[in-house]
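Incident review: delayed structure delivery

Summary: a single-chain prediction request sat in the queue longer than the usual turnaround. Root cause was a stuck worker, restarted by the on-call engineer. No data loss occurred. The affected request and its eventual output are reproduced below so the record is complete for anyone auditing the incident later.

Affected input:
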Amino acid sequence: MKTPSKGGKARSFSARSLRKVLVLHGPNLNLLGTREPQIYGGETLAHIGRRLAAQAVSAGIKLDSFQSNSESQLIERIQKARQSGVDFIVINPAAFTHTSVALRDALAAVHIPFIEVHLSNVHAREPFRRFSYFSDLAVGTICGLGSRGYEYALALILVTALLPLIWFKWKDWI
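Output delivered after worker restart:
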């Protein structure tokens, strides 16, 4: 699987090479569980993190999670991802979705495929929330599925990484 060609050549990966996924959480997501639960749900970020960690352990991959309210810290973590061998990123840029060209540029520069996740359905909310600086670079976008969107993103990464192996084994049977 590769990311779209916009933003440069992406690294491809396979099940054999998928070892490390980075999950990034943008501003105010540290308040999950108490911040507008009617929109974002009642689950805390720690609870979401535990579910993702369990999913990663059962798949045999390493998962790192990072949350920051600071754009510069998120950019630094994305830049560090390339040197630390991250194969895929799951990112909820939160409010930076609609404002951060710098975060977009960081993702484009590292050539690591990513999936954009939003807890709420941004298309059913205020008009300014419908624009994303990331969607055209992302492998895909998941929105409106609550905290399970992170798990669906990780599942998609795992299944997509396995498809070449499944096809290789299946074609030997025919």
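Verification: Residues 148-173 form the longest helix (26 residues).
Action items: add queue-age alerting; document worker restart procedure.
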